[in-house]
Amino acid sequence: MAPTSESHFGHDSGETSVGSREDLQTVLDGISAGVILQHASGKILTWNRTAAHIFGLEARDIVGRATADAEWATIREDGSPLPGRDHPSMVTLRTGRPCRGQVMGVRQPNGNYRWISIDTEPIFATEAGAIEAVAISFTDITEQRQVAADLVRSRRSMATLLGNLPGMVYRCQNDPDWTFDYVSEGCLGLTGYEPDNLVNSRTISYAEIIHPEDRQLVWDGVQEALAAGHEFELEYRIITRSGQVRWMWERGIMVPGDLGEPDLLEGFITDITPRKRAEEERVGLELRLRQSQKIEAMGTIAGGIAHDFNNILASIMGYAELALLDAEPESDLQSSLDAVVKASLRARDLVSQILTFSRGGEHDRRPVRLDGIVDEAVGMLRSVLPSTVGIEVVVDGAPPVIDADPSELHQVVVNLATNAVHAIEPNTGTITITVGATEVAAHELTAGELASGRYACLEVRDNGCGIPTSSLGSIFDPYFTTQVNGKGTGLGLAVVHGIVLAHGGGLRVVSTPEVGSVFAVYLPLCATGTAEDPPASGEPVGDVCGHILVVDDEESLVVLRTRELCRQGCEVTAVTDSLQALALFQADPQAFDLVITDMTMPGMAGDELFRAIRSVRADLPVVICTGYSERLGKLADRESTPDAIIHKPVRHEEFLATVRKLLSRPRPGR
């Protein structure tokens, strides 16, 4: 529109170049945008209904006023006042140039502001003439700005929410690099990389962060789930920017792309390393519990059979040894009986090992030097080691003193050395046994539980075949063996395990196939630091006489003991019922010089019979015989204990030596 004179817009003109004033108003009112015609003088000539609606005014309130009127209180986008001279229409009148898309706020009579995007266009009287008017058009963008502001707030809230999640939210392409289109701020704490490092793989792709051993598993897991139309859920490891290995849990879905865009993956990843470690600890505890249950179960079985089996062995070995006393030297009969005794001793040792690792054996603990035990065991081993295997002992520093059962520690050394021999054969090799004291870290242990600190150490090292990694978790199981059939019972290391743990110690095993193994035994140091001197052996005692009460519910053993003692010139009263034995004793307490009783018997157990006898006659020597009994361990807690304890089966000479020693002791009034 290019009017040629002011009369075209004057209030006193009756017509215009486009028709009547009413027709022009009709045209303006039909426009959806707000329209204002402003005279060069600054006064508003007219406007349309949309403008009136946006401003919240009637035509009579605006026509004839200026856009720069201070009462309109226009503001800029940042909320600061917009001076009248800076109004877009005034700028156009001043410069003759149009303004485009300027945003401003106008205040309605009710005090609310409406936001508009305004354009201005100058109208010239002639092509080269002065500006006659300004055409102002504007659209209400209040709702748009509100939506935009809400979107910004929503995005900020979402960013804050995602940033507070214990992990990271992502959107990525389904490609081998897992190229991220978006990743939340949580990736920094999770991976050590900033979001910008990962988006579009600018610094590193997420696939490169995944542990190399797990990358293919992650890819296969995602593709398999997507092919089935399911969400995917994975657990895998990553390597963080600092080099730490952490466990991740991820859940995601496929999101179809729009307008031909490729499908994307969206999901959430969080750190589950603490949970994984807890699971590993739980598994370790369960393994130790199962190991303990195995040993406990074997102990229960052993306890159930040991008594009866040892009675049978005691009869076999005892009668064979009695028969040997009458056999002709170097005769076939003597050879056969020797074989029976040797077989019985092997059976006795086997039962002893079962009882030891099941922790059912009795203990005689005292301060002892560990190097002395090792020297004694090695001295015995040298005579039986194959010529292809050498053995050496190294004492590192001052020999440690421990509170232990010497016979059980002797068994530990022998079993570990025997295990090393089996690992070396049929090749040549060397076993090195080192004794000393060392610092131990609790996490280094393979078996047992120790607080970190200083302990006595017995280390047995070999250069044998080593132990397969798959077998390391089972080497202390009863009857587990990697040896061929016929070599070893599978009880050696189980016995070591039982003895060491019963002494409050721990074990560490390090083994490399084809290189060798190291078994380290850690035992608490003795608080006194001083070993007891071994008891002095007494002078040999000859045959002595006396009246002996023998009590055992196994008739064959009663007959055996009677024959053994009678051959020594002793008078024997033998019964198979403990209650009958007590009645005989109570009838004449002074009639007996010694009582030999079994522990496990019906009616009255051996320890109960012992206490009943001692309550009447405190000076009477009492010997308790046992193959296995949990009750025996409780006797040490009592003020009075038996004079001797004999473990079945016992060698003939050992049994008689005990009897001679007790009968030779002086007693009051005898």
Quick structural gist:
The chain is an alpha+beta fold and 670 residues long.
Search tags:
670 residues; alpha+beta; five-stranded antiparallel beta sheet; 18 helices; 22 strands; disordered N terminus
| Overall spatial form | rod-shaped
The chain-level mean pLDDT equals 82
Helical content stands at 25-40%
For the largest beta sheet, what order do the strands appear in spatially? 2-1-5-4-3
| Unreliable stretches | 1-18, 533-541
Summarize the biggest pleated sheet. 5 strands, antiparallel
Count of helical segments?
18
Tell me the total number of β-strands.
22
Structural class: alpha+beta
Rg from C-alpha positions?
Answer: 51 Å
Measured distance between first and last alpha carbons: 150 Å
The percentage of residues in β strands lies in 15-25%
Structural notes for this entry:
The protein contains 18 helices and 22 strands. It has 670 residues and is an alpha+beta fold. The strands form 5 sheets. The chain has a 5-stranded antiparallel β-sheet, with helices on both faces. A 5-stranded antiparallel β-sheet has the order 7-6-10-9-8. A hairpin with a 6-residue loop joins β6 (167-173) and β7. The longest helix has 54 residues, at 273-326. The model is unreliable at 1-18 and 533-541 (pLDDT under 50).
